[in-house]
Model the fold of this input.
Amino acid sequence: MAMVGHGSPTGVGQNCCDGSPTGVSQVNCYSKKGDVQGQVAAQVNLNNAGEKPYMCGECGYRATYKSTLSKHMKTHTGEKPYKCDQCDYSAARKYDLGKHLAKHTGEKPYMCEECGYRTAQKYHLARHMRTHTGEKPYKCDQCDYSSAHKFTLDKHLTKHAGEKPYMCGECGYRAVDRSNLSKHMRTHTGEKPYKCYQCDYSAAQKSDLDKHLAKHTGEKPYMCGECGYRTSKKSHLSMHMRTHTGEKPYKCDQCDYSATRKAHLDRHVLKHTAIKSNLSQHMRTHTGEKPYKCDQCDFSAVRKSHLDDHLTKHTGEKPYMCGECGYRTDLKACLIPTYE
Done:
């Protein structure tokens, strides 16, 4: 039987030299050149049957081709054999290196005939065209949601599953996929792998670098068909379009308020939170509860701010200073002047 994770098919007998699945025409290690045609035909038959005999021992990924499994294994080993000869970038796939090199040349051969948007990648143009056609080919099989992009559908599907199997060991943050956890970890490590090739700017997220690059080029490829408004970001165009449609997709779950932007909803929700917080603090005047405890003496307080003021007595800190005479105090109230 094959060793899993080394390019060998599982549950299939092996040829002595290449780990090919049996059940198709095989050649031995010393076969003649002419016999290769038989191997190719056999592989075609395997593809037509939909079989994926090569399995990764790390994550269970399966592939039809041994070469495809070899490429996949680089995601586990971290191997990046394709090097850029103009900077220190390296990639696991030759295709990704090709995309990267376009950043050095600045070449953008693919252009949208509708609005003049240009890109270095053909598939970027294909995705962009959906903003004009309204095509949403990626359908949810559990509701009527559809999306122009597969990654957007993948995010949507997590709402149905509710699973977040990836957890941060630093703070307990949980994510639906490994890539989101990797992005989150940069908030702890400070890593900023996405570098601007025109200045010393760097970013933790590729989307942030893309936004930054628009400042250098001045390019605004996204245009509103209603009023001619142009922007460098697709998300800005989506927000702008709501001024025409009146759509307010962000709903408050505590009242009937709705907003065109998530930031506006977040501000509104704070009003509900503040009311609850203020009431909770007030109720302690009746219950006598003092949840904030000093770890150096038996002092306790109703509010955290009161505990913070108390702690300065232990540390000797006097953070409040008068700008006129330099007087310092540990209590803000002592700095406020009183008038007779």
Observations:
- The two ends are 95 Å apart (CA to CA).
- Residues 1-34 have pLDDT under 50 and may be disordered.
- The chain is about 40% helix and 10% strand.
